[in-house]
Amino acid sequence: MMNYGYQQYKTQSVETMTKGEMLILLYDEINKRLLRARTYFEKGDNELFEADIQRAIDIVNYLSKSLDRKYPISNDLYRLYDFITFQLSRVKSGRNLDLIDDVTPLITDLRESFKEADRMTKKDPSVGAGIGTTTTSINLGVG
């Protein structure tokens, strides 16, 4: 019974998020998965290591597919997401943890950029108009 209430709360909180808040949450999830993957690798749990890397790849692919490609910044983000996906695939197949260290700052920088953009659009919805989506919550090429 208690679990049902918690699940309802989680669903409601996600449904009331702005697109910017959702993006930030997705970047946080990628970072969390990469941190957990490192921990699993160090413990020798290859199955969970691969699962967390794959989940990070899936999230990046989702972000890539959600881009509104009619804006120039979307093409730049697409290339960056493609690079991140490539690097994460190399991490998964080659067990090269140094590549996680290369990708993590990119994810963190993207998160901070979208966080700032979301903050700015909450203050003034006209900020970023025409740069990205048709919504006013965040206008940086994400549809």
TrEMBL record:
BP term (GO), one: bacterial-type flagellum-dependent cell motility
Alphabetically ordered keywords of this record: Bacterial flagellum biogenesis, Cell projection, Chaperone, Cilium, Cytoplasm, Flagellum
CDD domains according to UniProt: FliS (cd16098)
A single Gene Ontology CC term: cytosol
Localisation per UniProt entry: Cytoplasm, Cytosol
Superkingdom of the organism of origin: Bacteria
InterPro entries with a match to the protein in the record: FliS (IPR003713), FliS_sf (IPR036584)
Keyword Lyase: no
Main location: cytoplasm
Keyword Chaperone: yes
Similarity field: Belongs to the FliS family.
Protein name: Flagellar export chaperone FliS
UniProt source species: Aminipila terrae
Species lineage: Bacteria, Bacillati, Bacillota, Clostridia, Peptostreptococcales
